[in-house]
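Reviewers of the previous submission asked for a worked example of the structure-prediction workflow described in the proposal, so we include one complete record here. The input consisted solely of the amino acid sequence. No template or homolog information was supplied to the procedure at any stage.
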Amino acid sequence: MAEGQQRGERQMDIDPGRAVEYIMKHSAEFAKAKAERVYLENFLRSKKSILMAKSSAKSVAAAEVDAYADPEYIGLLEGLKEAVEAEEKLKWMLTAAQLKVEIWRSQEATNRAIDSNAR
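From that input alone, the workflow returned the following structure tokens.
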């Protein structure tokens, strides 16, 4: 039994190739999700300006209130919420895959050290 396992630590079975394949497969999806989020953030500013310009309010502050209350603006906020959620989910799944590779490297180094000490 390995020394680390005697102390109650559990060795994880990790396939680094599978983790890298996951990263490669989902990187374009992450990039698209991020692009969507950035686009919506910028489009919100444009939409706010358009809505403020349409407002019949007498002051800039009142026109801003009208813009923020507009159903189109609220709909864009909902879209932004969904875009951020999709981006963050993909980001953390990709991060987890990267961490699996790092854990595998660490386990392999530990195994090599144990094997060299056993000789």
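Helices lie at 3-6, 16-54, 60-69, 71-118. We consider this example representative of the routine output the project will generate in years two and three.
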